[in-house]
Amino acid sequence: MHRYRTHRCGEPRSEHVGGTVRLSGWIHRKRDHGGLLFLDLRDHTGITQIVVHPDRPFFAEAERLRLESVVSVTGRIVARTPETVNPTLATGEVELVADALELLSAAEPLPLVVNTEREQPEELRLRYRFLDLRREVMQRNIRLRSAVIRTIRRLMHEQGFTEFRTPILTASSPEGARDFLVPSRLHPGKFYALPQAPQQYKQLYMISGFDRYFQIAPCFRDEDARADRSPGEFYQLDVEMAFVTQDDVFAAIEPVMVGVFEEHKQPGWTVSPAPFPRLAYDEALLRYGTDKPDLRNPIRIADVTELFRGSDFKVFANAIEQGAVVRAIPAPGAVGRPRSFFDGMVAFAQSLGAPGLGWIALEPAGARGPVAKFLGEERLAKLREVAGLATGDAVFFACAKPAEAAKLAGAVRIELGKQLDLLEKKTYRFCWIVDFPMFEWDEEEKKITFSHNPFSMPQGGLEALSTKDPLEIKAYQYDIVCNGVELSSGAIRNHRPDIMEKAFAIAGYGREELERRFGGMLRALKYGAPPHGGIAPGLDRIVMLLADTPNLREVTAFPLSQRAEELLLGAPSPVTEKQLKELHIMLDHVAREKLREEAERAAAARAAEASGAAEGAGG
């Protein structure tokens, strides 16, 4: 018999009755029923109930065992009586009657509960992540992540892609976020950057003649945390293809996305088929108020600026003359809702910084609401037509400058979808967002800058860059969106050095700076670069959607906290003076004092943690 186990804890079934087995795992629960001791023994495959009779020599030891202690149990598999069968367990028709028990590792009192899914403080979960990861939901999510990666690799290989690696230590690049910098010991005063994305290297693969590349790529960005964005690092399916158009990229990626979601969706869920619908960036902002629309929500925003121009509703009419627009956000079937519903939507808009929110309710007896009395029958009829309204519907209005109006209308659309329970259930709705602007105006820097990816091909090429207003130029840039979550950004690349030089010049990069920061790429483009393009769907967000959880930390084994700290091993951490000297770095006195204070706080926290461990949740 094997030293630790003949079977895993999720394997015993009726066919094993009468046999002797050995199981090893963690004590999940303990129950004392009139002298009999029941232990639920858990490993990654499931749970088997262990029965310890009071005449066993190890009974007293078993009674003293704390939850999460690791034991090995040898005994006979017996059938449960009909009234004790547990249909919620795969092993629920049998149990193991213990003949021998060996304690392999004793657990101290637990600082957090492992055997339930109740809410627990995030900081505590991250500090004791090794315990948190034992919970069933976390085991399921992390294993789902592994399975998704396995599927992605299979589907990519089936389409003729080859997996390559790109460097981790690289040069700083303007990808839109702050770099993580790594000081060089051998080159004083110089720094490597951890890659925000393998952008330049994957393009260099194409220029080097490797036709179809992919990798599960780590990316590093010094960004603040959000529910759908991990601080520090994340992973993406990084893809690049040579001699392709935008349509070719879509045709290669859509089967992968559909395949992954079909293979790993939860029971009862559906996946929108390929080809995915395509929405121009400008249309997405108008109809959905965002460039990552949730198509499960049937509400479509309408432009009703002209309807209010010159109307008796002077608040809107005057604002329109000052450059504002008016967006109508329908609320299907909202008539009959209490006044508190409408007041609540106004308060919601105000919470976002808006002065308010106009509204009209189309009741059978006529239109009512604070805006209705200012619109005559002709304008109300036009409103019904433009916004697709019917009797029984309400409509809300956002009035502001175009960008602000889109943002407010988009937020109201999402909130109405929730309040009115309009979203399609258990479905994944994909779409492409295309025709992104090549450039945008940076209000802080007071200059034109790249809006998406600086290495993208502008639509119209060199002629467009030379003759058009930069803010009107579109790029061959595209995003995949699923259920309101941006999964991916991609683009057809700028493979001509003359177009690249002109594009960067518009964004304020002189020839000297371009050579300094992108000399390798520029040099490569001069020696025969194929037209190429790519995309990079976010792995973490794919798994987050498949797990039906709103937070990336629930699908990442060892994430950083909201403050970008790894609380288990204690990163970032101070380093020694010797290490700093080797790296030619000197901290100022303020930084030194701050590090000293942080070290003292960390030591105090560890001491408090140790003294409070005895009051933990384990038993």
Describe the structure using short key phrases.
alpha+beta; 23% strand; single chain; 24 strands; 18 helices; 619 residues; five-stranded mixed barrel
SSE inventory with pairings:
Elements: E1 20-33, E2 36-43, E3 46-52, H1 59-64, E4 70-79, E5 94-105, H2 122-127, H3 129-132, H4 136-158, E6 162-163, E7 181-183, E8 191-193, H5 199-207, E9 212-221, E10 232-242, H6 246-264, E11 270-271, E12 278-280, H7 281-288, E13 302-303, H8 305-308, H9 314-321, E14 325-331, H10 339-351, E15 358-363, E16 366-368, H11 377-387, E17 394-400, H12 402-419, E18 427-428, E19 430-434, E20 439-442, E21 447-450, H13 461-467, E22 477-482, E23 485-492, H14 497-506, H15 511-525, E24 532-535, H16 539-546, H17 577-582, H18 589-612
What does this protein look like?
This protein is an alpha+beta fold and 619 residues long. It is built from 18 helices and 24 strands. It has an eight-stranded mixed β-sheet, with helices on both faces. Helix 4 (136-158) runs antiparallel to helix 6, helix 13 (461-467) runs parallel beside helix 14 and helix 14 runs antiparallel to helix 15 (511-525).
